[in-house]
Design goal:
Number of domains of chain B: 2
Structural class of chain B: alpha/beta
Order of helices and strands of chain A: EEEHEEHEHHHHHEHEHEEHHHEE
Largest sheet of chain B: 8 strands, mixed
Number of strands of chain B: 12
Largest sheet of chain A: 8 strands, mixed
Radius of gyration of chain B: 21 Å
CATH class of the largest domain in chain B: Alpha Beta
Distance between the termini of chain A: 28 Å
Helix content of chain A: 25-40%
Strand content of chain B: 15-25%
Largest interface: A-B, 47 and 41 residues
CATH class of the domain at 3-80 and 207-314 in chain A: Alpha Beta
Shape of chain B: globular
CATH architecture of the domain at 3-80 and 207-314 in chain A: 3-Layer(aba) Sandwich
Number of helices of chain B: 11
CATH topology of the largest domain in chain B: Rossmann fold
Number of helices of chain A: 12
Strand content of chain A: 15-25%
Order of helices and strands of chain B: EEEHEEHEHHHEHEHEEHHHEEH
CATH superfamily of the domain at 3-80 and 207-314 in chain A: P-loop containing nucleotide triphosphate hydrolases
Oligomer: heterodimer
CATH superfamily of the largest domain in chain B: P-loop containing nucleotide triphosphate hydrolases
Strand order of the largest sheet of chain B: 6-7-8-3-9-10-12-11
Chain lengths: 321, 337
């Protein structure tokens, strides 16, 4: 498989020349054609910011500092808004977390679906309507023709998320970025949406970047997983390897501290303390404060993301094996 | 989890209902009702953790809030410590509330941002006149340490604390009056995984120390399996199955419980994961207009003719394990897989 998207040493943050605070620090990873990659981490680890930097949707005061995002032969960080508009929604599209707030309440579903076609194709009104019905069918919305004329508040949360996915799929994107697509949904609806995304990945031949805090979701939908902590990638491995034997103590802690269905434990594992504030750790490993294996080396020297055999990477001085 | 006094019933709920009237027109005539909670009965024993699980809109929170009259129930009987609680008598439920405290879901909105932590934790003590000023201060000092914070936190305001610390303050406030029962409404769903495990462990430590009884309301089945002694599963305002943790998680009888359990994603690679997932069709129906017969029949993969006609009675599979399903009462085997 060839690489489709390559993020290289990406640095994103805010500030001025004197003092610049990095939210993302040296983030590097690749997404291959047709692959599902999971980005996992707790709130504030930079996983959503990574997605927004790829989409070129960074909030107003936050900017690219260094690094590149190669998509084919273009570097997305160098594009103007106009050039980005041509890629966004066509080659790369995104599904957001909250289907309740990411659809516009004052436009019909048909209207919002048509927008994607209007920007990226020359279809006539009639063709757009046909295409819209087709794409709603693809995401298994019952009664698609009638659904075009209803407003978002008429739909349930699960259906709204299906519509969001339909809008993202409208122009056959090469990559679908899904930012916590099922977090706001109930488990039985979550199962439906995950099933749908798995199927679409096969039929549409697109890559999926799944951003989530739920290790279970990653295990069930992804081929490869990237674990982030405090703005850095700390581990990358195939899902099989990661759950078999995590190398980074944080990944291991995360797996042990979440209760698992069917695996009763007397007491849950605890990672002491909380995630450090952005920019508060200036030297050493960012996890050292909370790590049970931390030594003086960890507190003084920053570990690098090192690659092992089989594209497995970890950022730790004392990787567990 | 404390095992002593297991046969001592602390709370008994009988046929609890909460119907919200739907009004229409200038005169506000009632044209129907949303049955948020529709005939829920259960018992909670002293020292145990009783969980109520279900998806959004199933009535689990409303049930919890009805117990201490934060939401006034439409009908039903509640016995606390063998004494019936009257919803109409303010004195009556105020007395009960002392022994029945609540921890809310969102620690960001359940603490008053204008009050210091000191004031937030001492408020229940002040309202119930539990001693002099200095006694209350001492009590607050010991409470804050009990939940793993330090006395310097008392002078802070909620916005200065992290989510996990705020939830600890919520727990300290609930413990202030030495209650018998704590209703925990989704206490860890707003927290990150690594913080969630800290709080869950704290719940268990406190239960052991003070022989507390919890009613744990949650949608997260893996958390419920970890913390509960007994579990009730709700769907559209009714309990569809209840039993001990082992019965519900290892041998679920109701098709909805089976589907619910199989929907939870498990953090194991696909090759190690030999579960088959039951994917339910459609969405839960609206409680304003529930389907005839069994409320679940439209989404049920194993429905029979009887399911469309009548709501099934609660049947005992054994002493503690109860199920409301026609297939169980007719002794048909339920295998949705």
């Amino acid at each position: 498989m060839s690489s489709l998207l390559q993020v290289q040493d990406l640095q994103v943050g805010w500030g001025n020349k004197k003092k610049f605070t990095h939210i993302l620090d040296n983030v590097s990873f690749t997404v291959k054609k047709g692959e599902a990659v999971g980005i996992v981490g707790e709130s504030g680890c930079g996983k959503s910011m990574t997605a927004l930097s790829i989409m070129g949707l960074l909030p107003a005061n936050i900017e690219y500092d260094a690094g590149s995002i190669q998509f084919g032969s273009t570097d997305l960080t160098k594009l103007t808004q106009n050039e980005m508009n041509k890629i966004r929604g066509k080659d790369i599209s995104m599904v957001f977390q909250e289907p309740m707030t990411s659809l516009n309440p004052s436009f019909t579903i048909g209207n919002q679906l048509a927008e994607a076609f209007k920007y990226h194709s020359n279809y006539s009104k009639q063709e757009i309507r046909e295409k819209s019905i087709e794409v709603l069918k693809k995401v298994r919305v019952p009664d698609p023709a009638q659904k075009l004329d209803v407003y978002p508040h008429n739909l349930s949360g699960g259906l709204r998320q299906r519509v969001m996915i339909a809008i993202a799929l409208a122009c056959n994107p090469k990559i679908l970025i899904a930012d916590e697509p099922t977090t706001a949904l109930d488990v039985t609806i979550q199962a439906q949406i995950l099933d749908l995304m798995n199927d679409l990945r096969q039929t549409e031949d697109m890559a999926i970047m799944m951003i989530t805090h739920d290790l279970g979701v990653v295990a069930e939908t992804c081929d490869r997983a990237i674990v982030m902590y405090a703005g850095q990638v700390i581990e990358e491995a195939t899902v099989e390897e990661l759950f078999e034997a995590p190398y980074h103590p944080y990944t291991r802690g995360l797996m042990l501290s979440a209760p698992q269905l069917g695996e009763l434990k007397e007491k849950l594992h605890v990672i002491p303390g909380t995630v450090p504030d952005i920019g508060s750790v200036t030297k050493g490993c960012r996890f050292a404060e909370r790590c049970e294996l931390a030594t003086n080396l960890c507190r003084e020297e920053t570990p690098q993301l090192e690659e092992f055999d089989n594209e497995r990477k970890v950022r730790c001085w004392h990787k567990m094996t | 989890m404390a095992q002593n006094d297991m046969n001592n019933t602390l709370l008994k709920v009988k046929d609890l209902k909460k119907h919200y009237p739907i009004k229409k027109g200038i005169l506000g005539g009632e044209i129907g009702a949303i049955k948020a909670v529709d005939g829920v009965s259960f018992e909670v024993k002293r020292g145990e953790t009783f969980s109520i699980v279900g998806e959004s809109g199933c009535g689990k929170t409303t049930t919890g809030m009805c117990l201490n009259n934060l939401i006034e129930p439409t009908s039903g009987e509640i016995y606390f410590n063998d004494k019936q609680v009257s919803f109409r008598q303010k004195k009556d439920f105020q007395e009960v509330r002392k022994n029945m405290q609540v921890i809310f879901q969102d620690p960001y909105s359940s603490l008053n941002p204008k009050h210091s932590i000191q004031r937030i934790i001492s408020e229940p003590l002040v309202i119930n006149k539990m001693g002099t000023k200095s006694e209350i201060e001492d009590r607050v000092q010991s409470l804050i340490r009990l939940v793993g914070l330090d006395s310097y936190h008392l002078n802070r305001y909620p916005h200065e604390l992290s989510g996990g610390q705020k939830q600890r303050v919520g727990i300290a406030r609930a413990l202030a009056l030495n209650p018998d029962l704590i209703i925990c409404d989704e206490p860890v769903s707003a927290l990150d995984v690594s913080i969630q495990s800290q709080i869950l462990n704290l719940f268990e430590e406190l239960q052991e120390k003070f022989n507390l009884t919890y009613i744990f309301i949650s949608h997260d089945l893996s958390v419920v399996e970890h913390i509960s002694d007994r579990v009730a599963v709700m769907y559209l305002g009714k309990i569809v199955e209840q039993g001990t943790r082992e019965e519900i998680f290892n041998d679920p009888k109701h098709p909805y419980t089976q589907a619910l359990l199989s929907s939870v994603p498990v953090a194991k690679p696909k090759s190690k994961n030999n579960r088959t997932r039951i994917v339910l069709e459609g969405d839960p129906p609206s409680p304003q207009n529930p389907p005839s017969g069994c409320h679940f029949h439209e989404r049920c993969p194993v429905k029979i003719e009887a399911c469309k006609k009548a709501y099934p009675d609660m049947r005992e599979v054994n002493n503690l394990h109860k199920v409301a399903c026609h297939l169980v009462s007719e002794n048909l085997s339920i295998t949705t897989q």
